[in-house]
Amino acid sequence: MAHSVQVTFDAHDPPNLAAFWAVVLDYEEQPPPPEFETWAEFAAANNLPADAMGNYGAIIDPVGDGPRLLFLKVPEPKAGKNRVHLDVAVSDRPAHVARLVEAGAIEHETRTELGVTWTVMEDPEGNEFCVSVEPSAQAGPDQGG
Fold first, then answer.
1. Which fold has domain 1-76?
2. DSSP codes, 57-122
3. pLDDT for 4-56, tens place per residue?
4. Which of 1, 124, 136, 144 has its Cα between 20 and 30 A from that of 49?
5. Sign of the C-alpha dihedral, residues 38, 43, 49, 54?
6. pTM recorded for the entire structure
7. Of the CATH numbers 3.10.180.10, 3.40.50.2000, 3.10.50.40, 3.40.50.150, which one belongs to the domain with range 84-145?
């Protein structure tokens, strides 16, 4: 039996980074537990300081297939290249890349190797990731960079 996975990001501004990645993955903010209307209500019931809510952010796949992404506030800035990054497969890479740039991403370069085209990007806090075309949506060896 496989184990479930949560992907955790260190972040300077967890709620903002969570909102960005919700756009990247077509995810949604994780709702509070069913017995609470809001996260503020949850925090109050659990004796969490109101300002602590900015220390976290979480997004989930609305259909429940993908992993939860958790964003945690850390004091130090990102240093160096990621040793692990996410590859996001979409049906229309150029349109999604444009949408992500509007949302705050930086587009670095587009590459094609072995018939696969992907774009190397950074999120608003400098985490690298790639956007490619879903295998089922590929029309041929070159996806028009």
1. 3.30.720
2. EEEE-TTS-SPEEEEEE-SSPP-S--SS-EEEEES-HHHHHHHHHHHT-EEEEEEEETTEEEEEEE
3. 999 999 999 999 999 999 999 999 999 999 999 998 899 899 998 877 888 99
4. 124
5. negative
6. 0.88
7. 3.10.180.10
